[in-house]
Specification:
This protein has 115 residues and is α+β, with helices and mostly antiparallel strands. 27% of the residues lie in helices and 23% in strands. The chain has a six-stranded antiparallel β-sheet, with helices on one face.
């Protein structure tokens, strides 16, 4: 569902799915949508600031290393400093209006994108 809401609606959708979800050559991560520049997102300090200032009443945390996702209610206190302790996670609003991706690469990301 995340790919359907945030990836461009063009002919690259299968390419994006392979890179972000189902890849045998590389480890797939949702944040590859931004690191491979399929979508222009805010990065680094600008991404953290945008995420921190955004309403996060209800959100979903997706663990990119497993098949688990967590629904978090009243998550406005969940700021980027809290997420600095985690790696390879994607946080998105429950209605897929925005997303924040924290990578395991210190020199890549984080990313913030709002539709």
């Amino acid at each position: 569902m995340w790919i359907n809401h945030f990836a461009p609606q063009d002919g690259k959708r299968n390419e994006i799915k392979k890179l972000c979800v189902e890849n045998r050559k590389y480890t797939p991560f949702l944040w590859h949508l931004f690191s491979y520049e399929y979508v222009d997102a805010k990065t680094e300090a600008e991404a953290k600031k945008a995420y921190d200032n955004h309403d996060k009443e209800d959100c979903v945390i997706i663990n990119n290393a497993s098949d688990f996702a967590y629904i978090v209610r009243n998550a406005n206190g969940l700021d980027s400093r809290c997420l600095d302790e985690l790696i390879d996670i994607t946080v998105t609003s429950s209605h897929f209006e925005w997303t924040y991706c924290k990578t395991h690469e210190e020199y890549i990301g984080p990313f913030f994108y709002s539709r």
